[in-house]
Specification:
The chain is of the alpha+beta class. The chain contains five helices and 13 strands. It has a six-stranded mixed β-sheet with strand order 8-12-13-11-10-9. The longest helix has 15 residues, at 85-99.
C-alpha cells in the first residue's frame, strides 16, 4: 500500500471538528425566581451546547449549589431556594472546565466514557483523554484542605469562563482568577471559597 493511500485513509478517519477553533461560549444562564424556587429557563439550551446528559449536568448543579431540584415538563431546571445568575455562571464554568474542555487542546469536542470504574473525558479532536473527578473524590480532597482562604498558590490557567475569568484546577477545587489568560501560570491568593469553587486574585 502506498504512502499516499495511507495518508488519504488517515485523513478520512479524522473527526469533523469544523468551527471548533472558535472560542467556546456557553449561553448565559437565564434565571427567574418563582416563589421559593429558582428556575434556570434555558437549561435545555445550555445542555445542548455542552452536549452532555441531562442527569449528569443536573446532578452537578444540585451538588455544587447545595440544594434539591428537578427538570420540569418544560425542560427547565427548577431548584429550591433563591440563586443568582452569577452563581449559575460560576458553577457552569466549573462544569465546563472539568467535564467538557480538553485539557490538552482546549476544545469542547469531547465525550464522557467509562473505563472499568473510572469516568474519562476523551477528546475527539486531538485524542487526549483524562480521568474526571467524581463528587466523592472532590469531597475527599476537600477534607485535606488543599485550598484555603488567605493562602497563595501557583496555578496554571486551563480555560477562560464566560465572564472572562481564568479557570484553574487544584485538587477538587475549581479556582477563578480575574485577569489571567489561558495557558498562563500565575500566583494567586484565595479570598473566598464556596463549596468546590474558590475565588482568587493575582499577586504576581
Amino acid at each position: 500500500m502506498s504512502y499516499k493511500s495511507d495518508l488519504d485513509r488517515a485523513l478520512e478517519e479524522v473527526p469533523d471538528i469544523e468551527g471548533s477553533r472558535d472560542r467556546f461560549q456557553v449561553p448565559e444562564p437565564e434565571v427567574r425566581v418563582e416563589g421559593s424556587s429558582t428556575i434556570l429557563t434555558n437549561f435545555q439550551e445550555i445542555l445542548d451546547t455542552l452536549n452532555r446528559e441531562e442527569d449528569h449536568l443536573m446532578k452537578y448543579l444540585l451538588d455544587e449549589i447545595g440544594t434539591a431540584g428537578h427538570v420540569d415538563k418544560s425542560d427547565r431546571a427548577r431548584l429550591k431556594g433563591e440563586f443568582s445568575e452569577s452563581e449559575f455562571s460560576r458553577v457552569l464554568d466549573a462544569y465546563v472546565g472539568e467535564y467538557v474542555l480538553c485539557s490538552e487542546c482546549g476544545r469542547p469536542d469531547t465525550h464522557l466514557e467509562r473505563e472499568d470504574r473510572t469516568l474519562m473525558l476523551r477528546c475527539d479532536a486531538c485524542g487526549a483523554f483524562r480521568p474526571v473527578e467524581s463528587g466523592a473524590k472532590r469531597t475527599t480532597t476537600q477534607t485535606k484542605k488543599e485550598v484555603e482562604e488567605g493562602e497563595t498558590y501557583e496555578l496554571k490557567i486551563t480555560a477562560i469562563g464566560n465572564k472572562g475569568d481564568g479557570i484553574a484546577k487544584k485538587g477538587g477545587y475549581t479556582i477563578f482568577v480575574p485577569g489571567a489568560e489561558e495557558g498562563e501560570v500565575v500566583q494567586a491568593r484565595v479570598h473566598d471559597i464556596s463549596g468546590n469553587l474558590a475565588f482568587a486574585e493575582r499577586v504576581d
